[in-house]
Design brief:
Length: 400
Amino acid sequence: MLVIKNVNVFDGVNEEIIKNAAIIMENGKIKEIIPQCTKSFEDCEVIDAEGKYASPGFIDCHVHFTLDEIPDKERQLNDQSAGGVIFSNADSYVAFRTVEAARKTLEAGFTTVVDGGGVNYVDVALKDAIKMGYVQGPDYYISGKQITAWPSHFRGLGQETYGPWGMRRMVREQLYWCADQIKIENSAPIRSVGRSLSKSAFTLEEMTAAVEEAHSAGLLVSVHARGSNPVKVSVEAGVDLICHGTGMDDEAIEMILEKGIYVLPTLASPNPNPEQHILNAKSKRVIELLKETGKTQWESIRKAYKAGVKMALSTDSGGVGIKHGENAKEMLRMKEIGMSNFECLKAATSEAAKAMNFKSKGIIKEDYEADIVLLKENPLEKLETVCDVEKVIKGGKIVK
Ligand SMILES: [Zn+2]
């Protein structure tokens, strides 16, 4: 049994803080929450929160643990052998790197993440390694390889296919690898030459076949979609999650609202104001492209948010220079597009759980999973506190 006492609780759904509470955890679950609790607990492990704030462990609905696209001059020596073989391209190197990504993300308070596509099924191995306790990481849900119409521009990330039966076959292949969701790339990557974001990579017939196959196995379908057409075709085919949602017109937003599905806004992918380490590392041409796409992205998400589209936190960490372990910054970006502190926090907890269909996550409530972060200040008043978590509890165990 583990108890946190003297704690103020943001439960993930209510704007009202539960004051001076005790949270009692047992067998990985939350057993009881006692408000205004003065009880002294004996014969169990007790954390005295001294009036600090608890929140449900954060959930990121879109990461890439097998990617680490952060050009780091200091790391290049390690990445390359004398003969010029790039170690970062070896699956074994990728696997070791994912261990660091998983640890950093967990220590940042993210107790659950969904991977939007892994390299050569390294994500499958990592998922098992975390479950077996070989390495420390969040509850890790995976996509296996992304299903693509064109060669992926990350090595080992995509499975190319075409035609409805090709789509079904690729979904089945991901099922074999124990994917938890199906990820489809329905737009060209941002940095492909001569890209057109108005082209839906797959036809409605292809998308529908993939959705049917995934749903028949109880899996959600998450789609990389930038541009109105890719969004519309995806939504019409019945997908569950629209990732990025760049450049959506009113009709696309209307369709999303009608189906009641979630958008994963990935506001750093790309950010109209790229962070310094990205500016240092990328070429002028790439930076311009990122800025321009970022601008379109933020406008689109702002419009969708105002129209009432449901949003869940997602970072795309690992891609576009987004650092693992800085996932909570996305809440601050969501605030920038107009969301309240309360809405940002829900997007990272209870709403993320709803988006991903997690039945016992994202809320501090009896019988829910004992995934909790301790924050120094009231996040409803000072959202920045989410970027500096003090303690992380996953499955009723202290992991930071
Ligand atoms: Zn992604």
